[in-house]
Amino acid sequence: MNDLDWLLNWYKNQCDGDWEHGNGIKINTLDNPGWYLWVSINETTLQNMPFKKIKIKRSEEDWIFCNIEEGMFKGYGGIFNLPELLSIFRKWAEDSCA
Predict the structure, then answer these.
(1) CA gap 74, 66 in Å, rounded
(2) What is the mean pLDDT of each run of 10 residues along the chain (98 residues)?
(3) Cα(27)–Cα(32) distance, integer angstroms
(4) Hey, which bits of 1-98 come out as E strands?
């Protein structure tokens, strides 16, 4: 299963008639240019799991920054790094729940 399909299933599994009303997933563009991926982890099994901040700068267009802040996985990346952001969230989520 690819990372996007995995994220869709993860989201579906969180939806319980209540969680999705105050939580969710946001994917949007940045103006530098790039992407962000915000995933609410409040009231999920990931809520209290440790996450080691990730900061990678390969070039002006190829960079990643990920952290947990305010009950949310926040990932930012360069113009072609959205797939990597999805992969980082998936790996952390799967490793945390193993």
Answers:
(1) 6
(2) 96 94 96 96 95 97 97 97 98 89
(3) 15
(4) 25-30, 34-40, 54-57, 63-69, 72-78
Question: Could you list the residue range(s) of the whole structural domain that residue 44 is in?
Answer: 3-96
Please compute, for residue 17, the number of CA atoms within 13 A of its CA located in the half-sphere on the CB side: 0
Residue type, position 15, single letter: C
SS3 54: strand
Total domains in the fold of the chain: 1
Task: Name 7's Cβ contacts closer than 8 Å, sequence gap at least 6.
Answer: 25, 39, 86, 89, 90
Burial class (CB in 10 A: 0-12, 13-18, 19+), 36: middle
Cα–Cα separations (whole angstroms), residue 52 to 15, 26, 77, 85: 26, 21, 16, 14
CB hemisphere CA count around 48 (13 angstroms): 0
Rounded CA separation 54/64 (Å): 7
